């Protein structure tokens, strides 16, 4: 090693102790391009610019990295749903505001699926339980996960007397399954060829049906 080489600064990931986040960011980019199957340790370390063995300081195996990337992708989804709500114009009444916030949850969910299909697939590459859906690290800016944002919107409908209180329990699963099913059809199913305008209209029709159903 030459004197000049010895004076080169160390990587920021090491100096700031941020290698874990650098690997998650690398994993997110891999997921964006190729979904959960693309998130592998060697590719993530290569993208982060570190030696392959460096990953094992923070992730025991590929599944551990994929889980962290999945949670980060879920947080991206939550922020997209929050952003959709943030674009809502001021309304003159509680009823209109509650409806708009509920609809924005579904609209943001579908928009994320269409704009970021790789991240959307990765966000839901999870164990078959609700633990991941309620994890703090899968939360958006306001500290709520996508599932919690949906729950808050449904609570708003109850408060606005648009949803009877006795029909509130379990309403998340009706709304979630309907919107998620359409998202899957749009990105991986027979509806993937729809024009964006048609896809948006289909989403609004599904949300209309959910409103009527609950």
From TrEMBL:
- Domain (HTH tetR-type): residue spans on this chain: 17-77
Locate the DNA-binding region by residue range. Answer: 40-59
Q: Which residues form a coiled coil?
A: none
Q: Which GO terms describe its molecular function?
A: DNA-binding transcription factor activity; transcription cis-regulatory region binding
Report keywords, A-Z: DNA-binding, Transcription, Transcription regulation
Instruction: List the protein's name.
Output: Putative TetR family transcriptional regulator
